[in-house]
Specification:
With 216 residues, the chain is an alpha+beta fold. The longest helix is centred in the middle third of the chain and has 17 residues. The protein is globular, with a radius of gyration of 15 Å. The two termini are 17 Å apart.
């Protein structure tokens, strides 16, 4: 899943996961390997993909922790905590759509738990940091469904980080993120994700189609 969220993510596959149609963009935001050239970037920039840390209410000391907390909140369906991660009391129309779609995406998988395999900053520009997160949704049959999401974070005046909402991400930021994401796709973490996703789909033919049906 390639949420994906803020410059996201929500949701998230090697060819075009979308946590918002999810993914997260949704970042919880899957990548579809055949559409990777365009869909990945578009989905990743809004999605919104999964991790455990402390509450976002006071912000996180690092962009990675901010993203981990957001994804954990998405998986639990805790909208109030999700809003705190974005540092807003009420979501605008775009953000609410992102949140609702990402939560729905995760619910469609009905995972027992989540395991983070990688989370790091792709690049920083001033107070902004573009972060990726790769994780596995442990399904009811104990199989691992690989997901990937990206989010744009921003450092606040108190030094802590929040997630940027879709409406806060400018065209210039999207362009830079797309360029950096293309480079990220050549790294080992991304390649391992693609391999894991392809392995899952081979073992579970028809899973994506069933998932899509649940999201209609």
């Amino acid at each position: 899943m390639e949420q994906r969220k803020a410059v996201r993510r929500k949701k998230r596959r090697p060819s075009g996961k979308n946590s918002r149609r999810r993914n997260s963009g949704i970042s919880l935001n899957r990548i579809n390997i055949k559409l990777i050239a365009g869909a990945v970037v578009a989905a990743a920039l809004v999605i919104g993909l999964i991790f455990a840390v402390r509450s976002c209410s006071a912000g996180s000391k690092s962009p990675e922790k901010a993203v981990k907390t957001l994804v954990t909140s998405y998986l639990k369906g805790k909208e109030k905590k999700i809003l705190k991660c974005y540092d807003v009391k009420k979501a605008d129309e775009d953000l609410q759509r992102e949140i609702s779609a990402t939560i729905k995406y995760f619910e469609a998988h009905n995972p027992k738990k989540t395991k983070i395999t990688a989370c790091d900053t792709i690049y920083k520009n001033g107070k902004n940091a573009y972060v990726y997160i790769i994780y596995n949704l442990i399904l009811e049959n104990d199989q691992s469904y690989p997901c990937i999401s990206t989010y744009m974070t921003q450092q606040k005046v108190d030094g802590k980080y929040r997630i940027l909402a879709p409406s806060e991400i400018t065209d210039e930021m999207k362009k830079e993120a797309a360029e950096k994401y293309a480079l990220f796709m050549e790294t080992d973490p991304y390649k391992k994700y693609v391999t894991a996703y392809e392995t899952f789909t081979k073992k579970n033919p028809g899973y994506e189609e069933k998932l899509a049906a649940k999201l209609r």
